[in-house]
Specification:
single chain, alpha/beta, 5-stranded mixed beta sheet, 8 helices, binds zinc ion
Amino acid sequence: MNDEFYMDLALRAAWRYQALTLPNPAVGCVLLDRGGRVLGIGAHKKAGFLHAEANAVFAALCDLDANFAQDFAREYAREFGVKFQNLEALKSALLQPSFTYDFILNRHGGLLRGACAYVTLEPCAHRGRTPSCAELLAQLGLSRVVIGTRDTNAQAAGGAEILRRGGIEVKFDVCRAAATELAEPFYLAREGGFCFI
Ligand SMILES: [Zn+2]
């Protein structure tokens, strides 16, 4: 399997939520372990909730460590009064971002060290309603991040620099045309020209 294959998986995951993420871009992420096995696939589903990278990381950690998922569900229920029927319901839920990012950073246990991420759009650098995805991936100790297209949003750009400073190999422009097409409604909406009719 080559980089284009995995980026295509990330693009497909993102398209399921196309336009539902506005005013944010639709973004997809695929995580692989060092042996090339898919650990998690994530998409950004709705503005104000987890970004694609965090969704993929969360799904991967739930699968890799049953205690991670159980403890998360218990602490989430205590904090927000929300319970999940099963693991799939937990992995597909719209989770409160700050709580989830903090839990991931406290409890990842180095399980994603050396992993590789395919992200359709450059991971964000800024802390907005959610923490920075570039910082998250750097703290998890990934070895490589493959990016579809650059983030031209001045506020969010710069993720690649954070990754490189964290010792992560960064590769740009894999399936760039398709990744740009995915992000197009976001750019149009930002310019005020996007219309569903
Ligand atoms: Zn992000």
